[in-house]
Design goal:
By secondary structure, this protein is α/β, with parallel strands linked by helices. The protein has 2 domains: 30 residues; 293 residues, Aminopeptidase. The chain is built from 8 helices and 8 strands, in the order αααβββαβαββαβαβα. A 6-stranded mixed β-sheet has the order 1-2-4-3-5-8, sandwiched between helices. The protein has a two-stranded parallel ribbon with strand order 6-7. Helix 6 links the parallel strand 6 and strand 7. The longest helix has 25 residues. It is globular.
Length: 329
């Protein structure tokens, strides 16, 4: 029996080795992402798009700045996308305050079946509840990094793709009312944290097209910080490790591995959670993750302004996302 087991195991190993060699012959060559041709992502343009959003003021619900910024964003995407949808909806904040929301959806190559969903939130937080100066904790946040940076990258991506069309359909969704969850000083607790990400919750259950889907999605949140650090957010790895790993491999190939750190970090509540949960589209979150476990020093404070933004960070994120999309052609 002993010898039989040894012979049997040897036969199994030889068979497995032969199968492995056969599979290796049939495996496609690894992609050299550094050789993928992509349109130029202009860091100056992306920076200016971030600044323009901030020039309206804090994009908080029911405000004039919110209204004017929405008009600007819709007009911009009408120039560079094939179709633009404006999805208006009613929502309530944690304390029952009624607010008007507006998701903005822009599509390039709307008739193509293979699609990528790119997203960010465009609102800014109503309360600077993390500000060290407690007198400012009820002051609206400018949200240069937390909000405007992700939108700025998407805007420049849309302009770039428009100049060099891809064989993939690309949809850009600007989610509203992401950042209006209960403030630290409120006497409120939600087990599901569904007081956050109101726009993505609404869109995921009421898509702009009834049978809309995408192969995968990438959410951008806080992607402009000068001292950026992006890690593999845990919920993204749980929902869509295949695209998370690809994006990080792309970043490494483009010499952005110092920004896209190859380690898994804790999960965060963000728009991608609801897109995965309700819309069933595998979506990851590229989000700032500081070594101390927080986001970045100006998160939800009155100092999240243009001084937080680095052009090279915007370009790194834009290059990585464009390469990820164009590598699938």
């Amino acid at each position: 029996m002993k010898n039989y087991k040894v012979i049997l195991m040897l036969a199994i190993c030889l068979t497995a080795f032969a199968a492995c060699k056969k599979d290796q012959k049939n495996m496609p060559e690894p992609i050299d992402y550094g050789k993928i041709v992509i349109p130029d992502f202009n860091a100056d343009s992306a920076y200016n798009y971030v600044a323009k959003q901030c020039s309206f003021g804090s994009r908080i619900p029911n405000s004039e700045a919110h209204k004017k910024c929405a008009e600007y964003l819709v007009e911009f995407f009408q120039r560079y996308a094939d179709t633009v949808y404006v999805q208006e909806f009613d929502a309530k904040l944690y304390d029952g305050t009624p607010v008007k929301g507006k998701n903005i959806i822009a599509s390039i190559n709307p008739d193509l079946r293979n699609r990528v969903l790119m997203a960010a939130h465009w609102d800014s937080r109503l309360w600077a509840d993390q500000d060290k100066n407690s007198n400012l904790n009820k002051t609206p946040v400018m949200g240069a990094n937390d909000g405007a940076s992700g939108v700025g990258v998407l805007m420049e991506m849309a302009r770039a793709i428009n100049s060099h069309k891809t064989d993939i359909g690309v949809d850009f969704i600007l989610f509203d009312l992401e950042d209006q969850g209960a403030p630290e000083w409120a006497d409120y607790q939600s087990q599901t944290q569904d007081d956050w990400c109101l726009g993505s919750q609404y869109w995921s259950q009421n898509k702009h097209l009834p049978f809309y889907t995408a192969d995968y999605g990438i959410l951008l949140d806080m992607v402009g910080y000068r001292n950026a650090r992006f890690t593999k957010e845990a919920q993204s790895m749980g929902y869509a490790a295949f695209i998370m790993n690809k994006v990080w491999n792309v970043a490494k190939s483009l010499n952005y591995g110092h920004l896209f750190v190859d380690m898994t970090s804790g999960g965060v509540m963000d728009d991608h959670v609801w897109v995965n949960h309700y819309a069933k589209i595998p979506m990851i979150d590229i989000v700032q993750s500081s070594p101390d476990g927080g986001f970045f020093p100006h998160w939800h404070t009155t100092t999240d302004d243009m001084n937080s933004i680095g052009k090279q960070t915007l370009k790194a994120v834009g290059d990585v996302c464009l390469t990820t999309i164009y590598s699938a052609q």
